[in-house]
Structure formats: C-alpha cells, structure tokens
Model the fold of this input.
Amino acid sequence: MEEKTIAGVNITLNEEGYLTDPEQWNEDVAKEIAQEEEIELSNKHFEVLNYLREQFLAGESLSIRKVGNSGIVNIKELYQLFPGGPLKKSSRIAGIPKPASCV
Amino acid sequence: MVTKEENPLKKVCIICAKGSIEDVYATLVMANGAVMEGIEAKVFFTFFGLDAITKKQMKKLKTATVGNPAMRMPGGLPFPTLLGVIPGVEAGVSWMMKKGMDKLDIPPVGEFLEMITAGGGEIYACKMAAEMFKLKKEDLWDEVIDIITVGDFYAMCGGENTQIIFT
Done:
C-alpha cells in the first residue's frame, strides 16, 4: 500500500500501482497514471476507461473479449491504445483493480 | 499473490501437437495470456494440432471420451469408458465443454486465434505435418503466417528470456 498525491488528489495504491478505491479516480488522475505508462490519453482512451469503470462498478468481470465486443473498440484497437498489456494497463488507468481474468 | 520478477519473460514459443478441445485451448490460453501481458508469442501447430488452424476442422474439435481417465459425469461420478464409445456421446460431451467455456467468456477457436493475432501473436503450421495430412496454405485459417519447418521455428525462438512451451 502506498499513499500518493496524484493530480492534487490523495490516492491509495496497492503494491502493483492500482487504485484501491475507484472513487478516488478522476480524469486528471487517469492522465497522470497514463503518463507513467507512457500513454497520452485521447477521447477514445477515455471511452474505454469509462466503459471499464461502468462494467466494474456494475459488478461485471472484465475480459479483453468483453471490451472487444463493447462496440467502442475492437481487440486490435485496444492493443494499439494500451500497448504491452491492454487490459492491465487500461484497468490501472481507469482506477479499478487489476483484472483477475486469464482471457 | 504477486511476485515481482526482476528478469521478466519476453517471448514464448508454444507448440501444439494435439487436436482435442482441451489441448488446443491450453495452447490458445497460454498464447493469448502472453500477448495480454505484453509478451511476444509464436505458436507452432503440428500433427493433430493442425486441426485447430484447419478451416474445415477448427469449429469441430472434440474432447476424447475414451481413454480419458479424468473424465467425469456432470455430478462428479466416474465416466465409464464404455459409455464413451456410444455414438453421439463424444459430441455431447464436447458440446458441454464448449458451453462451459462460453460461460467463462472463453471464445470459440477462430475468435480466440483472432484475439491472439490482434495482440501481435504469430501463428505457424508445421511443414512436415501439413504434408502428411495433405494440407495447403489455403486449407488453413487465413491469418496463419506460413507453413514452416521445425528449424525455421527454432530460428524464431532465440533471444534472451525466451521459453519454449509444449502443450
């Protein structure tokens, strides 16, 4: 656990750098975490992030396939938006826990 | 539990030599799991594993109901081998396997392969096995990169932090 101030907000991160409380998230926090991942967030990124948050807060489990079927991006685009770990990185930037899915 | 690896895996080369549902999915899950983690993945399908990337067969994979000691009835009772030989039983069991996987959001073979290639994973077919089964490039799934020899495949499996996995 680590306390940190990101974009002027006090945030608690777990040892892997994921927010422990999704309510501490806002778009500026997302932008700053994305910078750590060397990603500059576009509107498309935010569409994906908002979708992930909605699904997570509704209690749905997330998978790459589900995001690919969301109508927002296909799987190839998801990889392009969040290179080197699409579901993990997008979840971290979206302020939700690391997905526990193997697919 | 998470441990931080100081010298992380960079590439996996996965060989799939068997064509039953569970063998093929073991390969697909490992390959997709790799690209999801940003690990390069190259998959080599050989012998009966070729069914997974053969247009005519890839939708029709089966689970063996004979000679499969881990097989159980839905309630958990042992599955008698003799039952497995009855026509339709293998199809029924295979259907149940596929239904169970669908519930877990595990896609059909074709879609799974697409997920892997969308993430940059590469799919190859074994030249010797393709010749043996008289398969040409056009008989194979469209995104199979090429039919190659074992030597060609090994030539791609070099580099630091690369592992070869045989499923």
